Amino acid sequence: MTNILPESTNSDAVTFQERVQPWLLACFGEMIAGDREERNHRFLEEALELVQSTGCTASEAHQLVDYVFARPVGEPVQEVGGVMVTLAALCLANHLDMHAAAEAELARIWTKVEAIRAKQAAKPKHSPLPSAWERRLQLVKDHCEVRDQRWLIPIDAAEEPCAVRVIHRQHGDYMDWPEALEEQGVCVAADRAYTMQEESRFYTRSAAMRAAHDFLRRFGAGEVEYLEWDIDSQSMVVVGHSHRRNMNGWHSFEADRPDPLAPFYAPTGAGQ
Q1: pTM of the entire structure?
Q2: How many domains does the chain have?
């Protein structure tokens, strides 16, 4: 195979940015190497992987996306400076050497050019997602879940009608909740959960999801997440979320609703 490593350079005279360019051209060619949209997506992917590795959660990342995109657009030169300063600060906080890590990664990816070319060739066009993830999401839509900080609502759309369950994170399946108390009457959340699970007939996944969102909008708390079954890892993975009410069909909350089960689990003698 032809040697595709760059010619030896004096790292004191040539910047790291300049030394990345030959690798970009070797992997992708001039057109993709200079594609601003592709470079945006790959930088964002790597930045997210970095903060994930140092403890950032998906919920925190989603909140910051909504925060940033609600603000005026910044100036690229200043934002690059901000990226470099905050990256250095992140590395200091985590006892990492950003320059040594950069040199090690550039050396490593020069050994992966052929594999990266193959991966790029298989990637769907006009998608920000890596190809394997894109294909995976097309396989798991019949087994999904809508959830928030208080509730889990699994939906099995492979059955007809769809099978729906309503589970309280602390108190479990609705059949384990108290149905009534002498003074308080029927628990409205339990009544609605019973209707969804036992009496309603959802013949499409979208109908079941609408019912789940309506339940969370009435009784829920926190961010709404939508999950699908990942065949590769044999686990549920988050593929969508919302903080805002009625945003692209997703429902969330202007304020968390009180837990409808809380009065039924109050300690004996509470308030006395």
Answers
A1: 0.48
A2: 2
5 within a domain of the structure (yes/no): no
Amino acid identity of residue 175, one-letter, is M
Tokens of 3: 């040697």
Residues 59 and 166 both lie in one domain: no
Q: What are phi and psi of 234, to 5 degrees?
A: 55, 50
> Could you tell me how far CA 201 lies from the centroid of its own chain?
30
Q: How much of the chain, in percent, has pLDDT values that exceed 90?
A: 25
What span, in angstroms and rounded, lies between the C-alpha atoms of 50 and 44? 10
Query: 162 lies in which domain range?
Result: 143-263
Q: Distance of CA 142 to CAs 66, 157, 176, 205, Å?
A: 28, 5, 27, 7
Calculate the average pLDDT of the chain: 79
Same domain? 149 vs 251:
yes
